[in-house]
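RECORD TYPE: protein structure
NAME: Lcl C-terminal domain-containing protein
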Amino acid sequence: MAEDITVEQIRFKESGNGIIVEPSKGLMWMKNDTYQLTKKWMSWIQTRDYIQELNRKKFAGYGNWRMPTTSEARSLYDKNHSNKDHWGQHVP
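PREDICTED:
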């Protein structure tokens, strides 16, 4: 039998419109990062411009996208969870 999952264990909720919601922090994240979407790494300036374009187009219905703070970005990493790719292979 599968272990019951409590509400506290569900940190992220997929909204279905390209975003992931983190209710406990009041944050929304793009489901796919810019590298996944553009197939290239971006500089800080390119990322800033990309975000301006997201806001102009109202990505997922919102026009207030921004880069995460250092603390917000760090909160995504959990050393207790392994990182696996689409096929279930460990990604270092």
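COMMENT: Residues 11 and 22 are 6 Å apart (CA to CA).
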